[in-house]
Amino acid sequence: RNPLSRHLHFTMASLRHAARALATAPPRSAPLIVQKFGGTSLGTPAKLEKMLGIVHQHYPKNNVIAVVSALSTETKAEGTTNRLLAAAEAAVAARDFSDYLDRIEDTHLDVIYTMLKTHNVRESVRAYVTNELKVIRMFCEALQVIRELSHRSHDMIIGCGERLAAGVVAGVLQESGIPAQRVNLSNLWPEGLDTTKIGYHHYAKQAIVDTLDKVFTADPKAVPVVTGYIGHIKGGIIGGVGRGYSDFTAALVSAAMQADAMQVWKESDGIFTGNPTKLKSARLLHYVTPREAAELTYFGNEVLHPFTMEVAMEAKIPIHILNTFKPTSPGTTVDPSRVADDTRAPHGKGVAAVVSKKGITVLNLTSNRNLSPPTFLAKVFELFNKHRVKVDLISTTEASLSLTIHESVSAKSIEALQTDLADIGSCQSLTGRAIVSAIGEGIKGRVGLAASMFGVLANAGINFEMITQGASEINMAVVIDMKDVDKAVELIHGEFLEAE
Question: What are phi and psi for residue 65, nearest 5 degrees?
């Protein structure tokens, strides 16, 4: 037995003894905390030990629900989700897919045999993992014949990662004495959930309540370990929700169960004033308002999934973004009750953070005057809806528009859209652009802020092709050439967020 195995065995035994001594049923009046763990927080035995300590820190004095992403050993590129997608792609191309699934199995079995020393727990989890992967192998064999991957099939394969993670994490918690139960949300809606319909999340929350109430009724002291995959989404979960969908699931679970707090455990300390990997002067923000968090999330900060904010803030649930590997760090809190002030920025300049998005396409459209201005604008948005093209920013007059297209939209969709737009006007596309945004509650109504931002860019010779300020008035954004983005962020951060 290697030293790591001996250390983990000792730690697990200690935790198991302590948990069994304390694990009386948490009173239903106790606070409920939903803890979401990202895949890179779960991918190895050492990382799972950190997760164990975090859960034990909160249970049994609180009720706890864990929501888990698919395991990633070191990076997302090497993670279970990417390997599942690679296996499906290989199968559709009639290539061998077994190596991808073998690596997934090895990752999970390594955790099982290192951390699960109790025979019944170990064999139960091993059989569960083996069976899940057996189903996927059979499915991929069918894909080699069919040579086509539907949205439903894609979702079925991608959800395997979270099902595997829920089984393994539940087993690790059980080994340490916590009465965990894996909860599979893969079959919540057989017909698929349509995230384009207004109020879809209310239907989703009710389905989650029905599922988790059964768990707590059977065992009031249970710690449900919930799959971050939430079932088939119409149009596919990547298209309908996007990568990082387990954050969204955690928000739905939090809102459905009326949680007192939602914790998002990642490898990041939280939200910074800028990208800390590129800006040495970037500082951790201990809190942001919901509106700031929503803008930061959408325009470049990848700490939270955009849909997460909508659901959690509507339910008025605070979100704590925390570092799995620095559990004592305060992290960042998104607090619905908090009002922002200027103490976060030097000299009260109103900006909380600067973010950027690369790989943006800009469309400039001018009407051919065959349509009246209202009809022209209506037709433009009708065509964007037809081709399901997502827009980030828009600037308009009665006869022309400039729009930025979300980086997730394919070149094929943009080309098809441009073909249709040619019937109502001349359309020019510009690729290789980036959006740089200065975001903060203090921006609204602040005289001279825009002039300072544009001035610092102009003085550096950086041309901005489009300028917008959203209706919320807390986001001042410019579109620039992608080659200038890092310099622009550094300059704006220096102007507003660094002491003189």
Answer: -120, 125
Tell me if 401 sits within 8 A of 427, measured CB to CB. Answer: no
Find the farthest-apart pair of alpha carbons in the chain and give their distance in angstroms, rounded. 79
Question: Of 301, 292, 302, 303, which is closest to residue 265 (Cα–Cα)?
Answer: 303
Place of tokens 């019937």: 423
Phi, psi of 457 (to 5 degrees): -75, -45
Q: Are 331 and 323 in contact (CB under 8 A)?
A: yes
CA 159/CA 140 separation, integer angstroms: 14
Cβ atoms 434, 360 nearer than 8 A: yes
Long-range contacts of range 389-393, CB-CB < 8 Å, 24 or more positions apart? Answer: 389/413, 389/414, 389/417, 392/298, 392/299, 392/357, 392/360, 392/435, 393/435, 393/466, 393/468, 393/477, 393/479
Number of C-beta neighbours around residue 207 at 10 A? 18
Contact 169, 37 (CB under 8 A): yes
Order of strands, edge to edge, in the sheet holding 400-405? 391-396, 400-405, 353-367, 425-439, 475-481, 464-469
Residues 453, 462: contact at Cβ < 8 Å? no
Q: Residue 351: which region, alpha, beta or left (left: phi > 0; alpha: psi -120 to 50)?
A: beta
Neighbouring-strand partners of residue 224: 181
Task: Give me the phi and psi of 108, to 5 degrees please.
Answer: -75, -35
CA gyration radius, the chain: 24
Phi and psi of 364, rounded to 5°?
-110, 120
Q: Which pairs from 138-141 meet CB under 8 Å and 24+ separation?
A: 140/87, 140/88, 140/90, 140/91, 140/97, 140/101, 141/91
- How far apart, in whole angstroms, are the C-alpha atoms of residue 256 and residue 300? 28
Q: How far apart are CA 129 and CA 145, in angstroms?
A: 25
What end-to-end distance do the CA atoms of the chain give, in Å? Answer: 57
Residue that has been written with the tokens 């986001």 in this structure? 475
Q: Are 466 and 478 in contact (CB under 8 A)?
A: yes
Q: Determine the 3-state secondary structure of 471 from DSSP.
A: coil
* Contact indicator for 488, 436 with CB cutoff of 8 Å: yes
Residue 207, phi then psi, degrees to nearest 5 = -65, -35
Distance CA 439, CA 273 (A): 10
CA distance to 96, 139, 235, 410, per residue, from 149 (Å): 16, 11, 12, 18
Give the type of residue at 269. Answer: D
Q: How far is CA 189 from CA 150, 307, 312, 332, 410, in A?
A: 17, 19, 21, 34, 28
pTM, 2 dp: 0.85
CA pseudo-torsion sign 328, 334, 338, 339: positive
Q: Each residue of 4-49: pLDDT tens digit?
A: 444 444 455 555 544 443 444 444 568 999 999 999 899 899 999 9
pLDDT tens digits, one per residue of 253-312 = 999 999 999 999 998 899 999 999 899 999 999 988 888 888 888 888 777 777 788 888
